[in-house]
Amino acid sequence: MGAGTYGDAAYRFLVPDAPHHKRTDRDLFPAFDSTRAATLNVFRARPGVQRPSLVSSWSGSIDRLLLSFPSYGVHAAELAAGYRSVIDAMRVGTQFVVVHHESDRQTVEEWFSGHPAGNVSYVPMPDYVDFTDWAEDGYLALVDTADAEDADEGRTYLLEPWSFPRSGDSLIADNVEEHTSVRASQAPLVFQGGNCLIGDDFWLLGTDYFLDTLELIRSGELPVSVPEGRTEVEFVRELFSRHVDSARELQLVGTKRPLGLKKYYATADAGEFFLDLPGGGTGDLQPIFHIDMFVTLAGPADDGRFRVLVGSPRLADEVLGTKSPYALQNAYDEIAAEFDRRGFSVQRNPLVHRPQITQQLTFAALRDFAGTADGAELREVVAEFTAAGAQPGSTIQVRSWHHITWNNCLVENSSSVGRTVYLPTFGHGEQADLAVIDDEMDRLWTGLGFEVVRLADFNAFASRLGVVHCIKKYLGRSA
């Protein structure tokens, strides 16, 4: 569906060392047995959320964060450095809910030495349970404003979608409920946290998952029936209003027609042959599978319009002197133009679509694999290489493309603590040329009136198709 994953035998043949725990892993929604409905919170006897209101993506101070630290990240220096830069950047007084493997408790506790112990709630997971560090995606954080009539503030919920099959991440919300005051709930809808952004009187959802919900209703895989007198689209919007946010207007973000990016491309350039895999992080109607990778909410502009930042590969190419033939620039431009049409203040910013040589093999080896059942979908590129003059001994360089994005950042826009943006950085080591865009993004946000806090090197995250906004979940913010 939406994310265009490469989980098949051909991809593993071409990219044998592909990183595990990518943000798009198993981004599919399989058929379910009817007994699945019995486990849904929405069908339990107790009342569910009455008036849901999503936790903002931009407004107020960042008061409470959910973080998820699996062992593979705790023991990988480049990932641990990213986690720790976020922890260290958060002001003293921030509260944390920290999911971790049981055996890593001491190490993880040491990371929070700069924060009061009472501000950190630890949520242990058994070492035998797999989960990922992409804490943003498996649920939406919301408050039931109906609770606010009898309390200082509404109760916080983690609302899970109908299914979330990536690793063991679907277990996180229930485990958090066991160890904290946060409740877990569930909705008969398709969404992921990273494909949602929450504004003032609106919230954004990537079009791909809205369409996925429609498809599962039509196929009978979601346990809902469209009432008479309402269209499927109207009813899906009602479901999102009932379960996700009852007051904000839902706005969809995506192109009007499928992007049409192929899985494999044969490229001949100055006597060299490249097999390009450009779409591992691309959606059906979204140039990146989650909108938090290319859209940032910054709050009201001086003229009162709500400001959104929309990434632009063309701007990055102009700065770096590079070419990004598969970056889908027109899709970003179409989405930016639609924001402008809706009355937003649109700011464009550089976004990189970068290739990495993941393997070199002979044309004969590629041709032989394409002759097998597993390699059948490579036969078209084999024919194109043949037409371009490739010989059996010619070297085919496999290029896998991924996005490097500064849009995926943390934003505070608060009357009490000011405006701060926590920016990932990428101009390090082999990617040192990106330092110029680190500086460009610093200037851009400073010009918008924000204090910039630079975080650690996030290249190791970007190669796995996520960045800093993906590894946290806002649980609470003060207006």
Describe what you observe in this structure:
- This protein is α/β, with parallel strands linked by helices and 479 residues long.
- Helices cover 25% and strands 28% of the residues.
- It is built from 13 helices and 20 strands.
- Residues 1-6 and 28-46 have low confidence and may be disordered.
Short description:
By secondary structure, the protein is of the alpha/beta class. The chain has helices at residues 9-14, 71-74, 77-89, 105-111, 172-179, 207-219, 232-243, 313-320, 329-341, 363-370, 379-387, 435-447, 459-462; strands at residues 52-54, 61-69, 95-101, 120-125, 140-144, 155-160, 183-186, 196-198, 202-206, 249-253, 265-269, 272-277, 295-300, 306-312, 345-362, 395-405, 410-414, 418-425, 451-457, 472-478.
Count the beta strands. Answer: 20
Radius of gyration: 22 Å
Mean pLDDT: 92
Largest sheet: 6 strands, mixed
Enumerate how many helices there are, as a single number. 13
Cα separation of the termini: 37 Å
Per CATH, the architecture of the largest domain is 5-stranded Propeller
Class per helix and strand makeup: alpha/beta
